Amino acid sequence: MTAPGPRREDFGARLSIDRSVPGRRAVDVPAWHGSKTSLPDSSLLRDSLRLPEMSQGELVRYYTALSERNYGIDSGTYPLGSCTMKYNPKINDLIASQPGFADAHPQARAEDAQGTLRTLLELRRGLAEVTGLPHVSLAPAAGAQGELAGVLMITAALEERGELATRRRILVPDSAHGTNPATAAMAGYTVTHLPTAENGSLDRATIEQELDETVAAVMVTVPNTLGLWEQGIEEVAGLIHDAGAYLYADGANLNAIMGRVRYGDLGFDVAHLNLHKSFSTPHGGGGPGAGPVCCTEELAPYLPTPVVEECADGIVRLLAPERSIGQLQQFHGNVGVLLRAYAYLRALGLDGLRAVSGQAVLNANYLRTLLHGHYDLPYDRPVLHEVVFSGSRQRRQHDVRTYDIAKRLIDHGFHPPTVYFPLIVPEALMIEPTETEPPEAIEALADALIAIADEAAEDPDTLHGAPWSAPIGRLDETTAARRPVLRWQDVKVSETVSRLSR
Amino acid sequence: MASPHPYIPATEADRARMLERIGVDDLDALFADLPAAFRDPAIDLPPALTEPELIALLADRAAENAAPSRPNFLGAGAYRRSVPSIVSHLVSRSEFATAYTPYQPEISQGTLQSGFEFQSVVCELTGMDVANVGLYDVASATAEACLMASRTTKRQAAALLELIHPGTAGVVNTYARGAGLRVDVVASPDELSDEHACLVVQQPDFLGTIVDLEPLANAAHDVGALLVAVADPFALGILKAPGDAGADIVTGEGRDLAGAPAFGGPSLGLFAAGLPYLRQIPGRIVGRTKELHAPDDGEPRTGYVLTLQAREQFIRRERATSNVSTAQALIALGFTIAVQALGPQGLRQSAELCYQRAHDAARRISALPAYDVPERGPWFQEFLVRGPMSAPELSAALSEREITGGLDVSNRLEPEARDALLFCVTEATPDAHIEALIEALAEIGDEV
What we know:
The complex is a heterodimer. By secondary structure, chain A is α/β, with parallel strands linked by helices. Chain A is built from 16 helices and 12 strands. Chain A has 2 domains: 91-347, Aspartate Aminotransferase, domain 2 (3-Layer(aba) Sandwich); 350-477, Aspartate Aminotransferase, domain 1 (Alpha-Beta Complex). In chain A, the strands form 3 sheets. In chain A, strands 1-7-6-5-4-2-3 form a 7-stranded mixed beta sheet, with helices on both faces. In chain A, strands 10-12-11 form a 3-stranded antiparallel beta sheet, with helices on one face. In chain A, helix 4 runs parallel beside helix 10 (335-371). The longest helix of chain A is centred in the last third of the chain and has 37 residues, at 335-371. The model of chain A has no long low-confidence stretch (mean pLDDT 95). Chain B contains 13 helices and 12 strands. Chain B has a 7-stranded mixed beta sheet, with helices on both faces. Chain B has helices at 12-22, 51-63, 85-91, 94-97, 109-126, 138-153, 166-179, 213-222, 255-258, 313-316, 329-366, 391-400, 431-447, and strands at 130-131, 157-161, 182-186, 196-203, 226-231, 249-253, 269-273, 285-290, 302-307, 382-386, 407-408, 420-424. In chain B, helix 3 (85-91) runs antiparallel to helix 11 and helix 5 (109-126) packs parallel to helix 11 (329-366). At the A-B interface, helix 1, helix 2, helix 3, helix 4 and helix 5 of A face helix 1, helix 2, helix 3, helix 4 and helix 5 of B.
């Protein structure tokens, strides 16, 4: 029995349109007092527009209430593996929102945008230093677009070599992010999956066996999604090059190695970075991010347009590389995100970046040690930025799934880790604390996970029903997919249908 | 000993305690797997800056751009809008800004319900049945539209009607090359054939003219192609919803309603389509549902989840509809709030104000001796101006007077664009800037 209290509101049932009262408004539009031009023919105009009518205060309250039903890094520990949910320095937002930067028009002459362009140039140089790949385009809007750029650059290079018709395969480890095979397919390649060996690295024998004149590239995430160093990658790079293929680095996990080892030095030909991960820009609930693509001298002519260059007259300009794969954005990329990343780079410097990777790795290993024995650890060795546990034991012994463990962690005040990924670890719990968590937070996270492991044995139903303290309980995802309600215009129809079908 | 940086909390003592617990002597031991030959290379980065130093440096940098107060008449894909003040306030709330993709719906209802609001608003503006939560920008959204049209029609060519933004055409070409799609730029729908998966039309077109979409939709449908309308969502405050004119897919750019142009990005690609294409749509989609179990005090409550995920890369991998993962969620939130703050009357009034002010400015310029505003049919906020000198010279003469004139389009093929600058005036262009422009143009005209 729960104690009587105020009934919890069904907040989600009332959208803005349900709060609308005809005649209310949040802003006034200035009147036009000049001479009037008649509007175009009515056949070109709309005759209705249904939007909510709310006062300014009501609208602010509605979205404030929504924000309170969200959890961000500023709310607490957010150890979402492979997403590098580190603290987002506020000064970065302040810098990007300065009117001089914010009001710059993308069609402005280079001479009128030197502040932005020079900053982008320095970011470009910084990223080249950090990756050891000297040429960079900042254009890609996110990691997946950076991947597409990199693969299309490889396509262009193969075309020039006259080998595009034969090299139709891209090799991707079975531990890869889903974007890797999806990108390869989008660029017209077939995907061959490479198995992971027992030590958590690529299986060398399989690679040697697969490498032939039909392979265009191998896409590897370094460090990989198990949080482990890809053993012998520098030798694998040699094999790949000997076979005439290119080596692509998915830089999603750069945070572990910043300042310590570089993709270019290891033999990678091209890499993308996720600046919203390693370079601390806000994830925004799913973007905006930025996914710069960095490459060798050989691939530089194919970089996406634009690249930022300092010209002989001292003016920094946006240029098209001679054999560019073309544009990826109508304009120049997510510049506001790039400015934030630059501010981060300058705030850290080389010593700072090394401190970042050092602490990120130390934190992940501290968590690994604290949780050791409480959950299965399929790859039981020191890790880099993240550690992947398995809930297999809890599943087997107590019928508690990783899903339940994640949901219960919400009751302890944490955002759950990434779950069920990488796909090669059953019941995976992929945990990336990042360097910005203090040891006390990591200890608290470990304590919570240990308490949950105990609870799995003693009171599994509490886990099956979790979370108990969130703004809403588990949701019916099956019905959501089977009878999609995707906009307020569908709501009435669907509710009528569901009433009738009861 | 202190922590190494304000962003990194662990002190020297913390680190010693952690290393001891892990059972290693030093941090290097944790990096032992990294190949020694490549460890700790020389990296040339400028020294770290403290917060005051960083602010000073980047304030100086921002000042190297043209002053924000300088009159500016550029449009051509990025438009200065009157963005309601509540937008920046609400999108700055860190519960929104510092969250990620809502994988855990129980603590992500803010992002998810806002996403549902966004989809609803986009469907209303475009006249479409389904929208996703947004793609990178208008150009990549349009490229995705061409790929989707190709998948659904099983055809391997896309037609772009001339007068599409060159940046949009460029991105379509980039994506098409990967997908093995041919791209034809067509002058009229008569050039369509049964090889075309879609006809892509920009509304208003690149030179600002309002397009009658209906005959184009009919022409596309006659050859079994889809109509993709690339529409300015702000202009849709008064213009007919493309869906009502027969469009099958609608894309657009949402950045300007959500905030400042920011040199073009972060941008926001709108993407909406008719219901038949639901399972082919790229990107994330939010659906409304109920709790699985009723709370103790009543009926199951309403909530929102990411849905129809079998389309997406993290499940479908190489068979996904797109590789897109992180997109532009925070900009979509700003767009939604801006449109809802304006409301049905405000959006229409604001679009009308834009229309009136642009037409008034064009009329005043065309009344100046030595200036001509070529007629191109009904238009919204952009117009061509020919002056007493070549377009680059006119642009330079305005620049000397601290005014950024319209975009130089004199190298385009359309006869009316010859020697012309493409000016843009919106509801947010200050009156004083228009006065300064008229005065400068008159002066320049007098001097010739």
